[in-house]
Amino acid sequence: MCESSLEKSGSEFPGGHPRRADWVLLNAEWIVTCDSKMQSFSSGGMAITGDTISAVGPSHLIASQFTAQRTLDLKGCMIIPGLVNTHTHAAMSVFRGMKDDLPLQRWLFEVIFPAERRIADPDMVYWGTLLSCAEMLTGGITTFCDGYFFEEAAVRAAMDSGMRAVLGQGILDTAAPDQDGEEQSRDRAAAFIESFPGNIGRLRPSLFCHSPYTCSAGTLQWVKAFCRKHRVLYQVHVAETAIEVAESTALHGLRPVARLDELGVLDTGTLCVHAVWLDQEEIRILARRGAGVSHNAESNMKLASGVAPIPDLLSSGVTVGLGTDSCAGNNNLDLFSEMDKAAKLHKVFRKDPVVCGASQVLRMATLDGARALGWHDDTGSLEAGKKADLTIIDIERPHLAPLYDPVSHLVYAVKASDVRHVWVDGVQVVSDGRVLTIDVPSAMKEVKRLARKAGGLDGTSIP
Amino acid sequence: MCESSLEKSGSEFPGGHPRRADWVLLNAEWIVTCDSKMQSFSSGGMAITGDTISAVGPSHLIASQFTAQRTLDLKGCMIIPGLVNTHTHAAMSVFRGMKDDLPLQRWLFEVIFPAERRIADPDMVYWGTLLSCAEMLTGGITTFCDGYFFEEAAVRAAMDSGMRAVLGQGILDTAAPDQDGEEQSRDRAAAFIESFPGNIGRLRPSLFCHSPYTCSAGTLQWVKAFCRKHRVLYQVHVAETAIEVAESTALHGLRPVARLDELGVLDTGTLCVHAVWLDQEEIRILARRGAGVSHNAESNMKLASGVAPIPDLLSSGVTVGLGTDSCAGNNNLDLFSEMDKAAKLHKVFRKDPVVCGASQVLRMATLDGARALGWHDDTGSLEAGKKADLTIIDIERPHLAPLYDPVSHLVYAVKASDVRHVWVDGVQVVSDGRVLTIDVPSAMKEVKRLARKAGGLDGTSIP
């Protein structure tokens, strides 16, 4: 039983009148709140007013205390917080499955980078991001944290999709599709942040230093200072491969995370993406600085990067969220699949079926993911007063019967395709599996057009 | 281009009349045949006559050479062979997610075995198996290889479902739900095989010796002799955990697979399930004897059993199929998810993104799976003359755009929920995602009733 919600919402009114809400959701078989106590309860209901959750509680109490124009009976359904994808490069759906099963360097230098040189531009970023938003929304993801080039176009796509998003302009000192060298990259950073639309609460800007090996110390620090000044999230890929660690140690005498700490860029406003190769001291550093980690199990597996020390990070108190990485190398944007993989990967790697239990993994995909992005006051759990970001799952399906434990099901049995309805910021964006905000066939058509341009289709050869 | 099919089918008839078929499938965007050359081609068609594939080839040739009462336009779809699930205990869907994240021995002895004692009977086996068939069919699986108790009830469920199946009566020397001790287990084996309905070509009997540690040497050998006499598949769980290997070595001076070889039970009619902990000599033994292996990546990950040496088995020429294991411990029966996991698990475990490529993994889920069951003459690939077991996938979905390579998509991007139509033995059993042979709501209702009886629901406590 979820004790807190109706009280918090102030909706107990013996003898009073029902309160008005925009949406009342009733009779959910289960509500999994993902609040700090990971409370779940059956026969639940919710009320949504504007962009905010007014109340979460027993269905009969919600029914008696709220009236709304739109009421939805959720028999046979489960309500969970919208999932939080802490790492992707959404535009790269254009390269989904372009070439697989190659060594990382060949894949990057012979397939992806040349394809980016051929087609990365605002048009590609807009359509690739929009298609990714469609995929994420239909899979129950309401918030994503992005990093790419021409990120203004990703902002437009996120705006059109209705999703909550942290949108990070990518920064490199080497040549990139929308910048060329250290000075230009700083101009790009400044231009992006300063032109970011300030009037849409569900969109936040960010800067994404590609990595400690593609950005100079000066750039890493300058960008962090700029992020601090503008109070925006600083993202960085770090310690993804063993080679990166060896090179950092050889060049700088420090492992990557230790070096980022020496450069002073680790704090609660920093998101370390991948963080696969960490020693114990680096885990302590991350915990001490309060930096978040985005764990990308499928990407790390498929590219054979390694297995991040997630159980150690969690037991050290580091905030860990889950991320899909780009679907160029994954090859999807499916957090249900990521949850299942993360739970199972760490068990077999640690030879311990108890580590990364369902509840812990579900938290990584919801509240802890939101916390890693610094957005947990608004999203990541179902609690009165938070933004109404929620995902409704149809549990009346053969692969979900019987149901002993809703949290177990969410990690080990539910699939992205079981998502039926989704709300972001109080607005319904998916209804019966259909995205209401995006013309999906058009987005698919545009992405297929771009894929032909990228090569590998219609006779254009790829390596 | 698939060169072989139309020629093989004898359907080239310059100047002749079109042949009659029962089904003509046209305009598939892709056909992935999974034949010995792993040929795929675009704009494909197929003709089905009775239970057999009459032809596979370019759509325009199929259209000009066949007439049929029922023609299906498969624009936006891909045709693949029906998937082959080489290992499950289908009845155990009743225990799906009953308890997770426990050490194996506690899970077995405190959760699963007591639940089986409470409810395993023909009623439970029938409904549990039938629900599993619904899950497998909607996920594109056309053949499954089963092992459980009261297996006659599983035979009835498989019969009703329309699936192709190898149905194995479980054999233990210790107490089991439908037998008690060595003598009785032999009677059960004999009774099962001798009463097996011989008139349904898509069902085959089998015996499943639970393991070398729960069956005596005498039972292992007696059952194998009985299987040889009746020419049926002999299944055995072997080398699943490191503890099993240590105990076998201590008790018998031999590792499990080496011991099975010494007992003379390994040959092309034996399926070794799990085969996680093998040394190089045991891999050579499996290759020499021609025994098949069922690889259960998700089960091995979730139970932290270990990582099977699949790349070594494959390079040694051992036939490896994929299996879901029971959904009590997995917690689903999804071979698309198994393919994705297997491909990614071995990459990260071997630190090599090249191992277990998409093509190799897809073969394990199709033709090699059929081969491991000794049924590759009939199923596992789309070739004229084989039984018509096929799965149609809707590729016009946001998470499948663009499509550079159909085989990559099948392993890394397609989900079970993308399955649209399924044929088994020439009969359409799934249409637009709906199972035609099973009353799915009834099966779900019955399984929920059994789950309440099993404990853990409606107030009955589980450990």
Describe this protein with a few key phrases.
463 residues, TIM Barrel, alpha/beta, 9-stranded mixed beta sheet, homodimer, 2 domains, 17 helices, disordered C terminus
What would you note in describing this structure?
The structure is a homodimer. Chain A is α/β, with parallel strands linked by helices and about 475 residues long. The first copy, chain A, folds into two domains: about 120 residues, Urease, subunit C, domain 1; about 290 residues, Metal-dependent hydrolases (TIM Barrel). Helices cover about 40% and strands about 25% of the residues of chain A. The first copy, chain A, has 17 helices and 19 strands. In chain A, the strands form three sheets. In chain A, strands 1, 2, 3, 4, 5, 16, 17, 18 and 19 form a nine-stranded mixed beta sheet that branches. In chain A, α4 crosses α17 and α14 packs across α16. The first copy, chain A, is globular. The interface between A and B is large, with 72 and 73 residues.
